[in-house]
Amino acid sequence: MFFVNRMKQLVYFLLVGLDILSHMEVDSSVDLEESICIFKNGGDSSICRGNLQVIYPELGNAACIVIPKCHDFRKLLSKKWNAPYVRFPDAIEDAMYVLIMVDPDAPSRENPTFRYWRHWLVTKIHGRELQLGEVRGTVLTAYRPPTPPSGTGYHRYQFFLYEQPVSRTISLDEHEAKSLSVWDLDSFTSRFNLGKPVVSTQFLTENYKD
User: Fold this and answer.
1) I need a labelling partner for 121 at 20 to 30 A (CA). Which of 40, 97, 100, 190 fits?
2) The pTM is what?
3) What is the mean pLDDT for each group of 10 consecutive residues in the chain (210 residues)?
4) How many Cα atoms occupy the beta-carbon half-sphere of 30 within 13 Å?
5) Which residues are CB-neighbours of 89 under 8 A, at least 6 positions away?
6) Are 156 and 202 in contact (CB under 8 A)?
7) Is 183 helix (H, G, I), strand (E, B) or coil?
């Protein structure tokens, strides 16, 4: 009789424990995305071409991923982090390059009336420095972190690396220098005979409050 009662008690406590665990799972699932880092693919075969690395020290290589919500990564990206290291291991050591970062989804992907929004533009970057991830050159547009407006969904932040023609000085015209938005990227690259990007990549993120 004692053995039967003991077994009943064990079964009771087991059921109670399972019930508690089930409620814990439901409750924790509410903040699952914030508590667990899930790195989703944010790639696009037309953009993610070649081995261009975009490295934020606290996050790692952001190339072709969706920035996760965990650890406040999206907030840090918008509010705290400085320009990333941009590394191209296959850069030609003695060549010079032009780096462009744009948002094609401003103000939103469904209504990109401000395309392209220029976030970063650096010319005369030496290949040997790109091999190390150092972006040193002539800054035409200082780095501006991604700040997608609330409620506009995911924005793509695209990086294009071009080989700069020898002895060619690249500059923004008066109109381009006054505004970051509605930048004609194709016109700019054609004007200086930059051709197609040597490599390119992107990452996706949305407003950190969404």
Assistant:
1) 40
2) 0.84
3) 45 39 40 74 91 97 96 97 98 97 97 97 98 97 98 98 93 96 98 97 97
4) 5
5) 51, 53, 131
6) yes
7) coil
